[in-house]
Every structure is written in C-alpha cells, then in structure tokens.
Amino acid sequence: MTAAPPPTPTQARQALAGVVLTVCLWGGNVVLLKALLLWGHLNAETINLGRFLVAGAVLVGLSVRANGWPRWDARTWGQVALVGLLGNTLFQAFFLRAIGANPAGVAGLINGIVPVLVVPLGLLLGQRASGRQIGGVALAFAGLLVLLAVTLHPGTAVTPGGFAWVLAAAGTWALYTLWNRPLTERLGAVPFVAFSLALGCLPYVLWALPHVAPLPTVPPWGWGGIVLSALGANVVAYVGWANGARVLGAARTSVWNTVAPAVALLLSAGVLHERLPPGVWLGALVILAGAALANWPGRTPAGQRSRRPQPE
C-alpha cells in the first residue's frame, strides 16, 4: 500500500475549523435540548424521535449517494444493528434523561467523561494504555469524586440520581465507541453511522410513538429546534469530526472532544442562566484536564505509524 500524501496547509486549516465547529455544535446541542425540554412543550420521546427521523434520512441518503447500497452479509448487518442499538436507542434514552435530570452544564460533561471511560474499558478488552493515559484517567476520576461529593450536599441542583444518568450515558457511549471502531474501519465511517442509526433506533421509535407530544401544543420553534439539533449535532458535526480524524489523525482530533463540555458549561450559564456551585466547576475542570491528558497526542515511532487514519 502507498501511504496517503500529507494534507496541505489549507486542508489542515479546513479540517481544524470543522473540528472546532463540531465541538461547538455538540456543546450547544446539550443547551438546545435542555431548552426544548423546559420551554418547548416537548418530552424526550418526541425530541429523540424527530432527531432520529431527520438525521437518519439525511445520513442514509448521503451514504447511498456516495457509496451505493451496502452489500454486507447477514452477520455484518446484525453487528451494525446491535452496535447501533447501543449507540442510539440506549445512549439517546440515557442522554435525554441526563439532560432532563441535571443542569445542562452538568449533562454536557458526558462528552468529557466518555474518553476517560474508554481507556479502562479498553484495558478490560485487552487493549494497551500508556502511563499518560492512565494518569489522565486517574485525574478525571478525582474530578468525578468531587462531583459526587457535590451531589451528596442537600439542596444542590445536582442529585445522585441525576448524576447516575450522566454516568450511564457516558458509559454506554464509551462502549459504543470501542465496538464501533473496527466496524467503521472495515465498512467506512459514513455507511456505518448511517445504517447503525437507522437500524439501531428502531426499538426506540416503536417505544416512543405512543408517547409523542400532541402536535398542536408544540410551538414552531420547538420543531425547528429538533431539526437544528438533528442536522447540527448528528449530521454536520459528524461529517466535520470524521473529516478531522481523516486529515489531522484521530489523536490530534480526539483531544478537542474536551472542549464540548466547556462550551456547554458556558452556554448553560449565559443562555439558561444556570448558577452552578463552585464544586461543580472545580469537578468539571478536573475532569476535562484529565480527559485532555488522556487524549493528548503522544509520539508514535515512525515504524509503527498507521497508514490509515483510525476512525473515532
């Protein structure tokens, strides 16, 4: 195989801009969903159903247009459906519950906790971790303990039950991340994510249909928010992230994931006027510092460099 040529400065700048836009969209999406739950007369089932329909249709259309209909065997279709079930039906159910049960700034920490959980889960699956990664995980877990201590304080906006939904969502997405990597490498990122979403959300769609909010009670901006969330966080952001991983490499891209929770914290304070106790800010900063350390690009010996970007 011939190694791909290095990206031009223009390609690198465009890829970096796409990654920065992605983390801003992901951070802003948490605040948008919280606003839809608070003021849009929408429940979690209606929001997720709308997001699945919009994002699924767009992503499947993009995939088929670019690559044609997948010619996978029955086993591969089953694997895509099962991993999609984890990353869509289960994760999205936990994700909206976490947003509903917590301040948006706390729920936004899911993006920062995920890369920290990936390391110990990867160790259980036989993957290796560097000393820097283990140190970053240890630091992030110290931040989690700070947040846990805050939840035990009477009268705080963050409760143990609400924080449990944050950890459940982060743990589910961490498992999805580990299990989707070999499939995205083998099948292609866009086909995998498109059809894993389309198949993986089916159980949730069937469960959510009886719970859809009455259409006349939802303001037009509520439906617009659902479409914006689906196209921004699930389509535009994904394409930007995948392109960043392809051009810049997975290591340089993944460290930016820690910016999304910071965006959510700032927007939750500025837009939703959330006033979080100092302990939450301290715990969040420690978690994000640990996540950044665990994901910081390390030096790879020249003879061990992969010839293909590792998809996220």
TrEMBL record:
Name of this chain's protein: EamA domain-containing protein
Subcellular location: Membrane
Highest taxon of source: Bacteria
Alphabetic keyword roster: Membrane, Transmembrane, Transmembrane helix
Pfam families: EamA
Residues passing through the membrane, by range: 15-37, 49-68, 80-100, 106-125, 137-156, 162-179, 191-209, 221-242, 254-273, 279-298
PANTHER family linked: EAMA DOMAIN-CONTAINING PROTEIN (PTHR32322:SF2), INNER MEMBRANE TRANSPORTER (PTHR32322)
Main localization of the protein described in the UniProt heading: membrane
Keyword check for Coiled coil: no
Topology with respect to the bilayer: Multi-pass membrane protein
Family: Belongs to the EamA transporter family.
Domain EamA: 18-148, 162-295
